[in-house]
Amino acid sequence: QVQLVESGGGVVQTGGSLRLSCAASGSIFSINFMGWYRQAPGKQRELVAAIGSGGTTNYADSVKGRFTISRDNAKNTVYLQMNSLKPEDTAVYYCRLITGHNYWGQGTQVTVSS
């Protein structure tokens, strides 16, 4: 079993920054995919950023140039550095890990005030 623990959410003003972390623990043999998704009230969950096993990254158009995803393989941890935050970035952010099975974190709230 794999557990994902997210941290780093909070309340920030427009233009501010936050850094989310997602630490994976348990029976992890190889990681195929780690990513961040978000879900705002009344909206579907959407991909924000992802990083593959080879380090290839992918971003939603709405966050390109503002958010950066990175990973520490030794710690099985993925990060999301969020800069120049906007009110429309307000959502619950979820970490996802694929190791052959699909795992989700519990979510962390990010609120950007105008």
Helix proportion range: under 10%
What can be said about the biggest beta sheet?
7 strands, mixed
- Would you tell me the structural class of the helices and strands? mainly beta
What's the tally of helices? 0
The run of helices and strands is EEEEEEEEEEE
What is the rounded distance between the termini?
40 Å
Total strands: the figure is: 11
User: Which stretches are poorly predicted, pLDDT < 50 over at least 5 residues?
Assistant: none
User: Nearest-angstrom radius of gyration?
Assistant: 13 Å
In what range is the share of β-strand residues?
over 45%
Gross morphology: globular
Mean pLDDT: 94
Topology:
Layout: E1 2-7, E2 10-13, E3 18-26, E4 33-39, E5 46-52, E6 57-59, E7 67-72, E8 77-82, E9 91-98, E10 102-104, E11 108-113
Parallel strand pairs: 2-11
Antiparallel strand pairs: 1-3, 3-8, 4-5, 4-9, 5-6, 7-8, 9-10, 9-11
Describe this structure in words.
With 114 residues, the chain is mainly beta. The chain is 0% helix and 57% strand. The chain contains no helices and eleven strands. The chain has strands at residues 2-7, 10-13, 18-26, 33-39, 46-52, 57-59, 67-72, 77-82, 91-98, 102-104, 108-113. The strands form two sheets. Strands 2, 4, 5, 6, 9, 10 and 11 form a seven-stranded mixed β-sheet that branches. A hairpin with a 4-residue loop joins strand 7 (67-72) and strand 8. It is globular, with a radius of gyration of 13 Å. The chain starts with a strand and ends with a strand. The model has no long low-confidence stretch (mean pLDDT 94).
